Each structure stands twice: as C-alpha cells, then as structure tokens.
Design the sequence.
C-alpha cells in the first residue's frame, strides 16, 4: 500500500482543521447566545439578585415612648447606653489571642473568671462563630464609653454600639403600673411579627397593654456586606444604589391618671406587708394609684438578659411580687361584699330600712350553726347597723329571704365575676358562685341556704379583685354607673398632638336614689359614728368619708385548726385578709379607695389606716399638711 | 536569524493577556501582591515565548520525548509529595512557585503525539488502530495519573485534545466507526465505576439546571455556580464597570480569580466585553488553524491542531461552567485565570506555533 508524503499528510490535516474551525465558530456563536440570554434577556433579574447579595437592611431601633403620671412625673423613659463587643475574626488569631485578651482585660478591668471564660470561648470558636460579635461589657454610660474608647481604639476588632435602655426612675413604686419590658421572646413574635430579635417588648402592665403606642417605628439603614456578611465601608464600594436611610420614630408618650404622690403613699402605707391598694375616680374610672405589695424593680428585668438569681427570686417567692394584686389576684371580699345583698334587699323590697333582725351571736338552721363575728350578738339590728357594725347574722337572714338566684343576679349586674375591662393585661375574672357555677364546680352536692349565707358576707366561693370591689362601690356612689377602669388618659404622639382616651361606662343600673342614699348613709356610719367598725381607725382631720371594712377568712376555721402552729409561715399565711373600701368625700364622692392587706387579720385596724393615708394625700394634693 | 514577528498571532494573545491582567487586578484588588506575581508570570511567559520562537524548532522537537517522560515523573511526584488544595493533590511546592504538572502535561501530550505520529508514515487508507496504540496508551497513562489526583476535568480535557490531534490525521474509516461504538457502550460503565459521587451529583445538577429553576443539588455545589451566573447576568449589556462588580469585589464567588475569572470579566464589562473576548479567541484560533497549510511537516501541523484544540476546549468548557451549563470542573480560562503553570504551558505551545509561522514563511519567502 502507498505511503503518503508530507505534502499529502499536511493537506489531509488542513482538511480536518476546517471541520475544527467550523466547530469553533459554532461553539462561539453558542456561547454568545448563552451570554445574551443571561446578560440581556435576564440581566435585570440577575442585577436584582446581586443586590440582594450585598445589600443588608439594618433596622434602626426607635426609642420607646415615655410613660408619665398626671402630675407630670416620668414613670418610664428611655436612656441611651453603650455596649462593647468584639468580633473574634478581627480581634485576634491563634497567636495573638492570649495577649489581646489580657490587653482587653486591663482596659475593661475584667475579672479573672471573665478572662478564663473568654480564652475558653476562643478555643472553641471556629468558622462562622468568628464572624458573630460577642458582648464583653453591657450597659455602660456615655462618660464611661468615652473614657474607654480611647484605650479600645488600640485593640483590634472591638465594636462600641449604642442602644436604648428602658429606665423606670421610681422603680419599685410604679412597677405594677408601668410593668416592664424585656427581649422579644418566641411567644411575642406572633403578636408583633415585624419586631427585630433584639427588640424589647412590654411584658406586663402598661408596657404590654399599650405596646403598639409605646414601641415606635423602626427606621432603616442600608449597608454593603461581603461574602461572609462583614460590613464594608461605603467609600470603598463605588455604588450609588444604596437606598436612603430612614430615621426611626420615637414611640408615643402615654399619659396616665396616676398621681405620683398617691403611689408613694400606697407604697409606704403597705410597706412590706403583702397586699394591694387602688384609688379610682368614681365618675370616669380613671385609676389614680395602683400598688401591689411586695413590688419588684422593673429596672432589673428590663435588661437584655435577666440575671437568673433575680428572676428566680421574683418568680419563686410565695408573696408573688410579679403579680399585680389589684387586677390579677382575687380575694374573698368579706364584709365589703355586704353592700350588694343590702342594696338587693332594698331593691327587691325584701326589706326596708326599718326592717330589723335579731342577732344573738349565732344562727341555727337545719343542722348547722352560723355565727356572727361578734359572738355576744348585736341584738335587734336594722340595715344601718347591720352595715355599720357589719353584723353577719343580719345578712344571713337577709340572704335567706333573698334566695341565691336573686342575690347572684343582682351581683352580676355589678360585674362581680367578670373582668372590669381595665387597660392592663391578663386580668383576673374573679368568681361569682351562681347556681350554674355551683353545679359545675361542686358536682353531686346540694346547695343549701348556708352556702347563700356565706356568699352574703363575701365568703364561701365568691372572689373579687380589689379593682372589681372599687367598681362596685363607685357604682353605688356615682348613681349606678358601672365604669370601665382605665389607667391611661391620653396618648401624645411625637409631634406633641394629644389624643385623650374617653372614659367609658359599661352599664347604667336602674337603682332607686333613696335606696342608694340609704347604703351610703350606712357606709358613712362605719367610719364616722361610734360603734362603726372603722370609727376608731378613721382620720377625722380631713372631710368626712364613707367606708366599709372587711375581714375575710382565707380557709375555714376547722382547716386552720389542723395547721401546725409551729409552721409559722403557713400559719401566718392563713390569717384573715384585711380589706377596707373608702368613698371620699362623703358629701360629693369623687374617689374610691380599696386597700387589701393579705393576712392582715383585721380590716378596720390594718387596712383602714392605709386607705386613710391615701385619702389624706389626695385631699392635700400631695402637699404635706 | 530571522527576527520578524507574526503579529497576527501576537496581537490577539497580547490583547487577551492585557484584558486578563486588567480583570485580575480587579479580582485581586483585596490582595495586590498576588496580582504583581501574575504580572511577573506574564513577563516570564513572554520570555519563554521569545526564546522558543528564536531557536530552531528541530531543537524543541527533539525534546518532545524527554518532556513527556519528565512530565510522567512529575505527575507521579505530585501524588506522593504534592500539596493538597480543595481535596486534590495538584501542586508541587518548588519553594519559589507551586508547579502544576497537569498544565505541563497538556503540552507534553500534544508534543508527544505530534512527534510520534511524525515518525510514523501514514498508509493511504489511514492509520490502523494498532498503529496508534502506543500513543493512545501514553495518553491514557497521563489521563489516569491526573484522574487520581483527582482532577477529572483536566483528565478529560487531555483525552479530548489528544483525540482531536490523533484524529486530525488519517485514520482507517472502518476502525474509527468501531471505536465510536465502543465508546458509546463504555459510557454507562464509566458512569457506574469511574465517577465519584460528588462528580455525579455535579453533572446531575447541571443537567437539571438546564430545564429547572430549582435544581436539586447540595448547597455547596449550587452556591458557586449560582453566584457566578448572577455575576455574569448582572453585567447586562454594558457591565457594571471596572472594579465595581459587587459579586467580584465583595467576593461572593469562590475561586473568582482562577477558574471563575470570566464571571468577574462578564460582570464588569458586560455583554459587549464578552463579545470582544469571544472575538479575540476566535481570531486567534482562526489564525492558528489557517497556519496549517503553510507549515512544512506533520509535526508542525499536529502541534498547531493540538494547541488550537486545547485553547478552544478550555474556553468552551470554562465559559460553559461559569455560565452554569457545565458542572464545576477545574478548567482555567487561557490567558485569564490566575496561575503561572498554565501561562508557561501556553507560552511554550504558542512559541512553537509562532516559530513555525515565522520560519515557514521565511523559507517560503
């Protein structure tokens, strides 16, 4: 076979190379087509995608709105604070880490424990961890920050950032009015889906119920970030497509009906005894003072992280300092409840003011004996004396005549066992033991007249919050209007425009003026006439008030007898609750005061002086007499 | 001594190198020192190019066989004492540089085939497969050594370049048809036994990417391609402008200065820039292939074919990879990607081609 010469070989290869050239041309056209598709047809789409890569929106936190009292005292405000963070990636590498930690420690005067904790953190922090900043010192003041900034400038990777810290100037005194804020938790996100994870949200009190007004609007700022999310100085990035920053808007100021001096008096009056005190305007339902004892310091809880020892102390204490005892805890109203059967008796014409019952100290019925607090008996007792001296037997007999259904129906229109609708979160319902309630909660038992008798003196199963008691007395004093208590009187926006919160009336009761006057007159007797249960404890230097004492058993006498007297805590806790309600001034009532001292033993002796303290402060307008 | 230059080769190469350096200076703006190293490599490559041009090509031709065997040794060495990067052993640490023997292998295989086939006269109806068996074995050996690094992409590239070079000579028609059949049968077997899982996944990912908007691949596999496609697309018609490509400057694309340098170029210079680039490559390849009729022997012709095939395949594979049409395989873009070994390898091949061009015309003229 013939062998090709060089010329033929080359000609052969040249022929093949034309095929290659054609392939080169076609592939070039193909690549150009692909590029045209990506860059022209879908170019805008990819430009947007590239922006989503490097543009980071940072939320600018708004300062929270203030909460102020009606006499102009700041109850809650916001102050700027600073924190020092370090970014591990920039702070140090493996060789310099020990040295830099020591430098940091000397500048910030860190303890040995903190230093060893830091070194340990650095040995485990690898990868993405090195790009997330850690907080070294939190909540430092501006002066402190300025002093430290000079030294920190020499330490790489340190970040000083500012934030708003909630501050309650009067702390403990107003804690249950203001409530407190804390970092958004998972359960808060549902209520406020747009909140940043570093945001604070109201947990209790006004902070929670008025969260929407107080929070303010986030601003925004755009940053350029690189592939690991590090922020890049804009001057290094020639991009003109950064959206403009938007400022944050401060939350609205909340104006309350609170009188700061009444708050102080309530705090001093209750002292370290557990209990509650509330002062309310009887016409508008405006709350002028609200104090629950023991209280807590909201400043300790409004931190980024609540110290666990403080949280444990507050949440595990048997005295429940975090519970607002004015709205979130119900008590046996005891004798303060008696105004309801009394008024019911008059309205249903079961009694007249002149009707009298004989109190011999105890009452026998069926197989039971029910006694009056006064075992010597009150003798023949009319309504006036029944209330003034708080005769139990009078109300036993009255309740028998009224019957359970009529009594509870009457109590229901006063909103007993229903939330008052106050603008504070998580309100307690209380209990009105209606017939339906009884069959549901005591299945298989028969309701006997003794149960109704207990209800008539505010015992048995009836439970009311101090605020509910205040609403009942307000209705008696204001002519039968059931007001909706409210603590916030106005919202002032960041332009200074004031929007008043209108008082609300839930219901107007049709009560005869004569009967109402009769009840008020009896309440007057309680404090102003010898023999009244509070006469000895009333302060007669201010205009006349009307009032009612209450001393309520928290457990039955038999049960209490079974408690070991050496178990002091338990024994003390089962002492009777002391209550006192006052309407002031008697001639033209404006306010109602309810004071409750848990385990206070005697309503007149223990609770009345606290109520009078408040009346006096109210009368003198906070000035010392 | 002839000192004329063939500007039809030098112009497109210089233009490509210039664009390459401009792009690299942008991609490496966070680390200018690395960029200066590349500038030095370009200068070294130019020196190599000139040295090869002005020595008789016979001298270089005779080095083909020693070059092949020393490359084999280096490929062995890299497996034993190589430097690991990204899970592969691809580099030899020479102290002053990291040598990538697989780049040298591209040159060695082309020269080896050209040299050997030049020695073997062709019969009228072409080579029988038996005749080219030793060359095929030599190529497969190199492919195998590179495959186990592992570097499947370069291994396949060398196979393809060798295939084109060998088949540009005359091969017995009946036997070549048989070969094609064998290859088609062998494909599923290769898929089953040779490809590693991550390679299969990448291939599958790209296949699905062609028709699906949400390809089913692992995050790591998907990220690089997604980001480079974003960069290319975001360049639109005119490009974002030199040193203002955000995908580039903020380093969203891993390996954006080596295998993915095209994404930086496309982002900053847009579709117009890309057309210019494709035109320059086409111009160079056209010029190389049109040299074939005027060269004087089969060695020269085969070296030209091999060089053109190498550049062409790398450009097509690389740009396809960056624009999301091929899996992520380690094929750099000639004259653009960061790295000295590749530059020197291309300088050797283009130097030889330039040598042929200058000397053939000198004789002819």
Sequence:
């Amino acid at each position: 076979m013939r062998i090709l010469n060089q010329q033929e070989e080359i000609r052969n290869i040249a022929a093949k190379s034309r095929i290659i050239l054609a392939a080169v041309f076609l592939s070039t056209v193909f690549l150009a087509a692909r590029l045209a598709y990506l860059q022209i047809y879908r170019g805008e789409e990819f430009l947007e995608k590239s922006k989503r890569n490097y543009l980071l929106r940072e939320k600018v936190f708004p300062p929270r709105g203030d909460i102020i009292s009606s006499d102009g005292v700041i109850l809650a405000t916001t102050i700027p604070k600073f924190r020092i963070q370090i970014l591990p990636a920039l702070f140090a590498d493996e060789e310099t880490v020990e040295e830099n930690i020591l430098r940091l420690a000397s500048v910030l005067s860190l303890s040995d424990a903190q230093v060893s904790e830091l070194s340990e953190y650095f040995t485990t922090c690898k990868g993405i961890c090195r790009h997330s900043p850690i907080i070294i010192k939190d909540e430092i003041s501006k002066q402190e920050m300025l002093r430290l900034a000079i030294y920190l400038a020499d330490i790489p990777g340190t970040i000083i950032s500012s934030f708003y810290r909630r501050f309650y100037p009067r702390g403990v005194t107003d804690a249950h009015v203001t409530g407190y804020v804390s970092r958004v938790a998972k359960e808060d996100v549902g209520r406020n889906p747009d909140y940043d994870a570093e945001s604070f949200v109201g947990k209790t009190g006004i902070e929670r119920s008025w969260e929407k007004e107080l929070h303010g609007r986030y601003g925004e700022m755009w940053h350029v970030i690189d592939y690991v999310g590090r922020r890049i100085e804009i001057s290094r990035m020639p991009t003109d497509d950064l959206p403009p920053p938007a400022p944050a808007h401060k939350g609205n100021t909340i104006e309350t009906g609170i009188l700061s001096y009444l708050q102080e008096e309530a705090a001093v009056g209750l002292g370290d005894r557990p209990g509650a005190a509330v002062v309310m305007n009887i016409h508008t339902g405006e709350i002028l003072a609200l104090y629950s004892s023991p209280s807590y310091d909201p400043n300790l809880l409004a931190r980024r992280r609540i110290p666990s020892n403080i949280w444990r102390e507050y949440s595990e204490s048997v005295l429940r300092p975090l519970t607002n005892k004015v709205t979130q805890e119900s008590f046996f109203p005891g004798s303060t409840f008696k105004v309801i059967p009394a008024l019911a008796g008059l309205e249903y014409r079961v009694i007249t003011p002149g009707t009298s019952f004989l109190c011999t100290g105890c009452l026998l019925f069926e197989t039971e004996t029910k006694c009056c607090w006064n075992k010597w008996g009150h003798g023949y007792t009319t309504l006036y004396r029944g209330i003034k001296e708080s005769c139990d037997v009078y109300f036993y007999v009255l309740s028998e005549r009224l019957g359970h259904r009529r009594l509870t129906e009457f109590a229901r229109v006063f909103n007993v066992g229903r939330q008052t609708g106050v603008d504070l979160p998580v309100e307690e319902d209380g209990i009105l033991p209606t017939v339906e309630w009884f069959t549901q909660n005591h299945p298989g038992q028969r309701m006997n007249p003794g149960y109704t008798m207990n209800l008539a003196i505010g015992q048995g199963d009836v439970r009311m919050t101090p605020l509910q008691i205040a609403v009942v007395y307000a209705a008696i004093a204001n002519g039968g209007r059931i007001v909706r208590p409210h603590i916030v009187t106005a919202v002032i926006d960041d332009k200074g425009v004031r929007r008043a919160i209108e008082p609300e009336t839930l219901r107007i009761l049709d009560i005869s003026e004569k009967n109402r006057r009769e009840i008020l007159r009896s309440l007057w007797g309680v404090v102003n006439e010898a023999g009244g249960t509070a006469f000895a404890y009333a302060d007669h230097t201010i205009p006349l008030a009307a009032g009612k004492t209450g001393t309520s058993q928290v457990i039955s006498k038999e049960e209490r007898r079974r408690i070991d007297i050496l178990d002091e805590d338990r024994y003390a806790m089962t002492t009777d609750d002391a209550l006192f309600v006052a309407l002031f001034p008697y001639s033209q009532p404006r306010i109602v005061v309810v004071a409750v001292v848990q385990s206070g033993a005697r309503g007149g002796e223990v609770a009345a002086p606290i109520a009078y303290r408040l009346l006096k402060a109210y009368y003198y307008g906070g000035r010392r007499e | 001594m002839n000192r004329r230059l063939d500007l039809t080769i030098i112009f497109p190469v210089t233009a490509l190198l210039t664009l390459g350096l401009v792009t690299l200076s942008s991609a490496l703006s966070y680390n200018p020192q690395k960029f200066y190293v590349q500038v030095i490599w370009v200068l070294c490559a130019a020196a190599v190019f000139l040295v090869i041009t002005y020595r008789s090509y016979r001298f270089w031709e005779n080095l083909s066989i020693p070059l092949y065997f020393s490359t084999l040794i280096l490929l062995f060495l890299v497996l034993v004492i190589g430097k690991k990067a990204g899970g592969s052993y691809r580099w030899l640490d020479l102290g002053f540089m990291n040598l990538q023997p697989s780049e040298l292998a591209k040159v060695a295989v082309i020269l080896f085939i050209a040299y050997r086939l030049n020695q073997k006269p062709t019969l009228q109806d072409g080579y029988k497969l038996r005749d080219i068996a030793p060359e095929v074995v030599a190529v497969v050996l190199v492919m195998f050594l590179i495959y186990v690094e592992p570097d499947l992409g370069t291994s396949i590239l060398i196979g393809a370049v060798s295939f084109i070079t060998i088949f540009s000579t005359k091969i017995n028609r009946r036997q070549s048809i048989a070969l094609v059949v064998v290859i088609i049968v062998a494909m599923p077997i290769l898929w089953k036994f040779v490809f590693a899982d991550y390679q299969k996944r990448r291939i599958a990912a790209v296949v699905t990417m062609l028709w699906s908007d949400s390809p089913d691949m692992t995050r790591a596999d998907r990220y690089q391609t997604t980001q480079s496609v974003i960069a290319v697309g975001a360049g639109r018609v005119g490009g974002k402008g030199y040193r203002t490509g955000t995908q580039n400057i903020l380093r969203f694309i891993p390996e954006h200065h080596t295998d993915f340098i095209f994404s930086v170029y496309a982002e900053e210079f847009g579709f117009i820039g890309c057309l210019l680039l494709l035109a320059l490559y086409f111009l160079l390849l056209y010029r190389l292939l049109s040299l074939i009729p005027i060269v004087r022997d089969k060695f020269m012709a085969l070296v030209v074919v091999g060089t053109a095939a190498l550049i062409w395949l790398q450009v097509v594979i690389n740009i396809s990879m960056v624009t999301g049409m091929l899996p992520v395989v380690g094929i750099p873009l000639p004259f653009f990607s960061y790295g000295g070994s590749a530059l020197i390898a291309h300088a050797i091949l283009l130097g030889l081609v330039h040598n042929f061009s200058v000397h053939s015309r000198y004789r002819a003229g």
Observations:
- The domain at 260-619 of chain A is CATH 3.40.710.10 (Beta-lactamase).
- Residues 361 and 375 of chain A are 4 Å apart (CA to CA).
- The first helix of chain A runs from residue 6 to 41.
- The first strand of chain A starts at residue 55 and ends at 60.
